[in-house]
Amino acid sequence: MDVPFSSSGALSRAHYVIVRKVESATSSQAADQHLAAEIKSIRRQLAHPALDLKACKECLIILLYCSMAITSGLLDNGYLDFALSHALVLAEAGTTVEDKRIGYMFCSMIMSAEHELRLMLVNTLRKDLEDSSVPRICLALDSLISLANEDLIPAVQSRLHDLLLHNYPHVRRRALLALRSLSRYEPQLLTRATSTIQKRLKDPDPSVASSALIFASDIPDTDPKQHDIHDMVNNMLQGTLSTLHKTSHKTHWFILRILQTLLTMRSGKLSYIISFSNTLADFLKEISPSCLISCKVSQVTLVMQVCLPRILLQMYKAWLFFFCKGIILGIFRNFSLLSPEMLLSKEKSQGISAVRCIKGLLTSQNPNDQYLFLSCLECLDPMIWAGTTAEYPTILDASEVGRVMEFLDAPDHLMRKKTMEILNRIDSNILSAYYTQALQSIPTGLTIMGQNAFVVRLLEIPGIQHKLDGGEYGRKVKEIFAQLETRLGEGQHRILEDAVEVVLVYIRTSDLSFRLACVATLITMFIDSDTLLEPTFMVIVSALAAEYCGVLSIPPAQMLLAFSVNLKAYSPVVQDTCIAAMLRIAADCDGKIAEEVISSVSEVRQNAGRHIQRRCDQFLAYSVEGGPLKAAVRNATSSSLPDFLQALQLSEEKRPQSPSSSSPRLASSTTVGSSGKLRYTAYDRPQAIPSLRVERPHSSLSDVGTTNSFTLESLPAINLAVGSQLLEGVPGVPSEHEGSREDLITLDSPFVSDAQGGTDGAGFAEEWDSLAKSVNARGWCSETVDEVTRQLGEMEGCEVKVVGGSMLPFIGRSDVA
């Protein structure tokens, strides 16, 4: 970022400095450190008793920037709530619209829906709504739309009804949207405003009428005036479509809004739509892409000199053509609400066909036009245009049907899926024949990218054919990978990552009954199989088994046994995924794991690399003690395998390490302490020297480790790398405790254990009391007793006993023994 401050647009020097630090950071972790330090600095500034509104506004803007720029998930919910009171003050006492806007914006972005300070906004919003200044009214209405809640309704609803009749269209439009936002908490507001909505539908300003259309789509069917509103909307469509080619381009978006409202209300009148199909056809022919000028680069200069007015006209027509596409699609979507018999009878009576009006899009070379044609065709029943019955002939000729079939091999996956949907509705046998042919013709010389692309295309077919049958979809998935193994040869290809992602995402986005049926089918086929399965299929099964083992009726011990049968025969990548899934399944086994599983994992470990050995060690250790696995299942953010492994890794990292292995410093300190004597004279105690450096408000992360600070424990486990590096380089002792520092060479480590064995109760009490003054020593734990007990309890082979305050020699307190 080489932009100088004068040209940066920053609000202040502090704003410029933090943006510059973030933009020039070498990594996201370094940027997060700068942002965390800035948040702490702003917190100190806002705590100053003499803070003025200008400084408050600057701090809030920087906080908004930090909240948007920091890595997602690093800030806990409510972490910036300390600034909400200042935002409320700025919204209330701000002298300019800009000041109040910052206060309102901060509240709408940071304040939660259940926050108690929302009540403080009621009077502020009400006063701004009653102000005579139009900018303040618009600002209050914008804030009301985003901050709507039930507490605001009694205070502002009467004023909102008055603002619906305001002279300025900007106020009327926002008042309609604000009333609609409040109606989510009190639906009766919709009924009370129906008369006003009818007036606003006739508003001369299109933006106000568009807001009224949005409001009208929410009116319940039980309202007695709903029928009148439906008629008004249909009349609006009639008036706009009749003059479509004469209408100003500024109102074409308004036609789209009308069509969307009719679709939402499901009340479109067929006669209004059919009667203007010819108008649309003529208009489409007038501005078709073939009429547009296409010039080579070498001809641009000559054309610009000779035909500039014509180019501008054609550019306007091309721009208008895109609006016409949206209007055509909106009309065909309204056709989908009608029965095929009704639509066909109207077409016959008027001598037109809706599909013939758009046949020109099929022959276009523009993929957008082709996709629009398929989208319109999808809205209609095949009976109307495909000739599925003898009574109604087909609209498309043989060449046009062939053109549609070519879209099955289109490079764009959306066009392929759209074509499959249309053909499956005509006759499912067409898609079945295409699937069989494609399955039998898998090329053998494809690269890994080619294999990925081909299998993904194959997986799209059962995704269309069996989107309601999870069991059949699972069987087709196994069939595809089995055929792939046959065609390419066993072990001749690697894991297809794109195919794994397609299957897992498709299953996850389906409904619950589909997911359960599909996963149960896949795992059952895996358990029943006595042969080595395809690697990609094994990765899919592993991920699904780990995610759904807690809800399936298949016993987890049976799944573990199936994974262990051929575990040593797979590649390390597949072994890693399988053992990770076995870790998750073992959490539901309650420690009852078969010896065959243990021996299989042990056998894999003998000839594996370091990573697989570590994964095997994890399984062998947790197969005896399953408590950490159950804790990881509880703490995982979702049931997926990656989230489970992340939670397990985080729990392992939080466990206290032994002094000999935690760090070189701690190990050396332990060695010195165990000897009992120093090999040289200790340094004199350093004298406290006042620092000549004045701390800047936005200086550092110097107190990240203090209470209520930005610590790793206060962050969710979304980015472990960021969280673990956020505290690096932080001084261990604040400057205010300078005089309490001890010479670390002469100070025994509190972790040094007695080589002669344990001590009795009285001796332990004396040692415990002797360490009470050493809480600032390096390596000493200053956590609460409950936290220490939890961390020690997670250590293997460590038994924790809490001695209450009623027992000697610890009367009056609780200690960990």
Give the count of helical stretches: 42
What is the alpha-carbon Rg in Å? 35 Å
Main sheet? Answer: 2 strands, antiparallel
Task: Count every beta strand, where a strand is a DSSP E run of 2 or more residues.
Answer: 2
- Helix coverage percent of residues? 55-70%
The secondary structure category is mainly alpha
Strand percent estimate: under 5%
Mean pLDDT: 76
Q: What gap, in angstroms, lies between the N and C termini?
A: 56 Å
- Give the strand line-up of the largest sheet: 1-2
What characteristic shape results from the CA principal axes?
flat
What are the segments in which pLDDT stays under 50 over at least 5 consecutive residues? 275-319, 658-759, 774-778
Keywords: Membrane, Protein transport, Transport
Main location: membrane
Subcellular location: Endomembrane system
List keywords for this structure.
ARM-like; single chain; mainly alpha; Leucine-rich Repeat Variant; 817 residues
Please render the helix and strand layout as text.
Elements: H1 5-8, H2 13-23, H3 28-46, H4 53-69, H5 84-93, H6 97-110, H7 120-129, H8 134-146, H9 153-163, H10 169-182, H11 188-192, H12 194-201, H13 206-216, H14 226-241, H15 252-265, H16 270-274, H17 277-286, H18 300-306, H19 308-335, H20 340-350, H21 359-362, H22 367-379, H23 382-385, H24 398-406, H25 413-426, H26 428-440, H27 448-465, H28 470-488, H29 497-508, H30 512-528, H31 535-548, H32 556-565, H33 572-586, H34 595-606, H35 610-622, H36 627-635, H37 641-654, H38 659-662, H39 664-675, H40 720-725, H41 761-770, H42 785-793, E1 802-803, E2 815-816
Antiparallel strand pairs: 1-2
Helix pairs in contact: 2-3, 2-4, 3-4, 4-5, 4-6, 5-6, 6-8, 7-8, 7-9, 8-10, 9-10, 10-13, 12-13, 12-14, 13-15, 14-15, 15-19, 19-22, 22-25, 25-26, 25-27, 26-27, 27-28, 27-29, 28-30, 29-31, 30-31, 30-32, 31-33, 32-33, 32-34, 33-35, 34-35, 36-37
Domain Clathrin/coatomer adaptor adaptin-like N-terminal: 96-263
Keywords: Membrane, Protein transport, Transport
Pfam families: Adaptin_N
